[in-house]
Amino acid sequence: MKNLEKNKWYSGREKLFVAVDCVIFGFDKGVLKLLVFKREVEPLKGGWSLIGSFIRPEEDADGAAKRVLKEITGLDHIYMEELKTYSHVDRDPGARCISISQYALIKIEEYNKELVKQNGAFWFAVDNLPDLVLDHNKMVIDALEYLQHKVQFFPIGFELLSNSFTLPQLQSLYEEIFQKKLDSRNFRKKILSLDLLEKTAAKDKSSSKKGAYLYKFDLKKYNRLQENGFNFLMLKK
Amino acid sequence: MKNLEKNKWYSGREKLFVAVDCVIFGFDKGVLKLLVFKREVEPLKGGWSLIGSFIRPEEDADGAAKRVLKEITGLDHIYMEELKTYSHVDRDPGARCISISQYALIKIEEYNKELVKQNGAFWFAVDNLPDLVLDHNKMVIDALEYLQHKVQFFPIGFELLSNSFTLPQLQSLYEEIFQKKLDSRNFRKKILSLDLLEKTAAKDKSSSKKGAYLYKFDLKKYNRLQENGFNFLMLKK
DNA sequence: ATAATAAACGTAAAAAATACATTTATTATA
DNA sequence: TATAATAAATGTATTTTTTACGTTTATTAT
Predict the structure, then answer these.
(1) A16 touches chain B (CB under 8 A)
(2) If you count residue pairs, one on A and one on B, with CB atoms under 8 Å apart, how many are there?
(3) A29, A68, A119, B82 — which has fewest CB within 10 A?
(4) pLDDT averaged over chain A?
């Protein structure tokens, strides 16, 4: 509290960068993927990297992340949450730089493929990621761990699926996140008992002759449940 | 990704501060308390404030928080976790300043009372806090919400108690955090079934004639449980 | 010896999680 | 047009966990 003058260091004579880095998840036909790109600036130019940016004067961390997401995917209104900061003194060999990681869940069929290409970005399966620059691999590991936890208590899995989806699709999403097979009878029972989903008359026949009914996430019901303090627990089996 | 030159702004010509602010919880005879102090620098000098500091060149966010905690309480090895960043452009009228909040759980009988006094710090009951400067009240609200969630899945409540504690004390801690009375029979059953506590032969007679047995948190057992993927769920009643 | 006080304890009922197998709707093809 | 193939949809019995609830016990002060 006392020696504030010591901190004059940060008053402009030295360089301190603050950035955001986005861990962008997508779910593509049963596979959890991550959007990464080829870094365009030194140091480590050409290395695989998360998508990030320095925070600009006129924006906060959230704003910076939204801007980056928009620039790279063309999407607004993405589900996004701050994860944590990475501030090791020498995490970046180029400069003292603190990074705030954010994870984002996007509906993979909605992003702008042209933009992604233009930006040199690619989707990699999460369990087949290349080495990333700096501490970005650690960011991904942390994000995955957090996602696994979060998804058990909050219905955010839907953010990775189209507006309507089948129960088998939803189940395969959880199986992918948890890296674990689930029993379809118990899964359906549990998920439907939460009274969050609305069954539609339409069927998706892309993966079976019989076709599977499409469901929609019912935000109103969800909000009602939240008010009463609600746990979105997942099954053990 | 492109217009990186726009970010030259942060290369030293303008001022950007990065700080940590600590939400320090203590548990004092059934009451959850927070350590706050009188701000010593402009702007808002004299206002009640969380305890914080700018991050110094040679330390990361975690290091800064540990340093602050040490300065103010005299304690090392405090349970501490980063919460989130507060980066609104005009959150601080004095300068552009991003703050990383950390919450800390301390054993309230262990802190250095002399130091705390010297630093102008005081303990307030969480439900009777004064208005704090900047967005510090929001930080406290966020920290409390997080604590409520966290404490249901991780055995961190112990960090707020002495090394040995009675079950009634532990129960009252959870009751205070959840703002909710719990049934002592169910509480004991649940907490003991987790096989995390070690009963000692000693009794604490400070609050009853009969006295209550003292227990200790068994870290080894806890670690064993963690490996097998374990949920520290709390009761509904 | 008695009263007062908080600690400790057990059990029955209800709810939730788990394990497990068959039927159904549809399309392709024989 | 009957049959085979395929994934979707469904039910139930068992086990585990959670919940509700009242009495006994150890100790101190009177």
Answers:
(1) yes
(2) 106
(3) A29
(4) 89
Structure tokens of B85?
Answer: 């960043």
C-alpha dist (Å) from residue A235 to A146, A173, B144, B150, B221? 18, 14, 28, 20, 24
- What's the CA B114/C1' D28 distance, rounded, in angstroms? 36
- Which domains can be identified in chain A, with CATH numbers? 17-153 (3.90.79.10), 161-227 (1.10.10.10)
Question: How far does CA B125 lie from the centroid of its chain?
Answer: 13
Strand partners, B199: B215
List beta partners, residue B215. Answer: B165, B199
Using DSSP's 3-state secondary structure scheme, residue A111 falls into coil
Q: Over the stretch A107-120, which tens digit does the pLDDT of each residue have?
A: 999 999 999 999 99
Q: pTM of the predicted model, to two decimals?
A: 0.90
Query: Is the pLDDT score of B204 beyond 60?
Result: yes
Q: Quick one: chain B helix, strand, coil %, rounded to 5?
A: 35, 30, 35
Q: How confident is the model at residue A1 (pLDDT cuts 50, 70, 90)?
A: very low
Name the nt closest to A205 by C-alpha to C1'.
Answer: C26
- Identify the H or E element spanning B61: helix B61-73
